Amino acid sequence: MGTIAQAELYRLIAQAQERGERVAVATVAHTRGSTPQRRGAKMLFFENGEVAGTVGGGCIEAEVWAEARAALRNGTSALHHFQLTADEASEEGMVCGGTMEIFIDVWKSREEG
């Protein structure tokens, strides 16, 4: 799974809204140290469990996925701080060891307004 083009991002959001579903957009807002993606990388999370794009893979993406599911349930957007220590990275076979701030923005369905 790679980065997602802006036009594709908005097309997928519009389709979800037409279906009456919420969608969460995770955007890498800030990075420090060695991270799997740079600022601006995006990942979409749909209520049906599908995803598009990436914010880095591995441990970070699993944590972001959990936060996105919670955001979809409660409808609240928020900035989240994730840290991937060198020890955690080596356990996962990765070379990362930095920190990432990821904004998870919930786009409500058209019915919700």
| Number of DSSP strand runs | 5
Q: Could you list the spans in which at least 5 consecutive residues all have pLDDT below 50?
A: none
Strand content: 25-35%
User: Major beta sheet, specifics?
Assistant: 5 strands, antiparallel
Shape: globular
What is the SS-derived class?
alpha+beta
Q: Overall pLDDT, averaged?
A: 86
Number of helices: 3
Report the end-to-end length measured between terminal Cα atoms.
31 Å
Whole-number tally of structural domains: 1
Order of helices and strands: HEEEHEHE
Query: Major sheet: order of its strands?
Result: 3-2-1-5-4
Question: What is the share of helical residues?
Answer: 25-40%
Radius of gyration: 14 Å
Describe this structure in words.
The chain has one domain (6-107). Helix content is 32%, strand content 29%. The chain is built from three helices and five strands. A five-stranded antiparallel β-sheet has the order 3-2-1-5-4, sandwiched between helices. The longest helix is centred in the middle third of the chain and has 17 residues, at 58-74. It is globular.
Strand and helix map with partners:
Elements: H1 6-18, E1 23-32, E2 42-46, E3 51-53, H2 58-74, E4 78-83, H3 86-91, E5 99-107
Give me some keywords for this one:
113 residues; alpha+beta; 5-stranded antiparallel beta sheet; 3 helices; 5 strands; globular
